[in-house]
Amino acid sequence: MPIHLDISHLDRIVIAVVIGDVTPDDVAGLARQFAESGSMHYRKIVDTAAGVLAIDEAGVAAVAAFLRADPKADSRGPLAFVVDPKRPDFFAEKFVELTAGERPVKIFHSLQPARRWLDECATIQPRR
To answer: Does 14 score more than 70 pLDDT?
Structure first.
């Protein structure tokens, strides 16, 4: 599969790096791996800067629906997409549009700001 997945249970972060052209089946497989690994509540980075997610609007909606259907969907962690600033990323843009109200999700053009944002999202605020 042209998606390299690294799950750190200790740090509670998932990093998926897309390399080359990715099919809708590859994206569906990635979503299944998120669900099966017990990492739905972890912070996630999906880096598509070196690849292309070749998927149409219906495919993006199907992935979003699959993730929503997970029994632990309410506890999905924040998701940062890292995209190439020189080309549009239809999957990331459409996924953010479809799921923005469900959990923190945002698009970045480099890895460091994405990591900082994920760290900010994971900060536990004291009760007042």
So the answer is: yes
Residue 1's pLDDT is: 57
Rounded CA separation 74/47 (Å): 23
CA max distance for the chain: 48
Phi, psi (deg, nearest 5) at residue 115: -65, -45
Sheet with 43-53: strands ordered across? 3-8, 13-22, 43-53, 79-82, 105-108
Of 33-37, 57-61, 121-125, minimum mean pLDDT range: 121-125
| Whole-angstrom distance, CA of residue 90 vs CA of residue 43 | 22
Q: What is the pTM of this model?
A: 0.89
Q: Hey, what long-range contacts does 120-125 have (CB within 8 A, 24 or more apart)?
A: 121/43, 121/77, 121/78, 122/12, 122/43, 122/77, 122/78
Show the domains of the chain with their CATH numbers: 3-122 (3.30.750.24)
- State the Cα–Cα distance between residues 103 and 47, nearest whole angstrom: 18
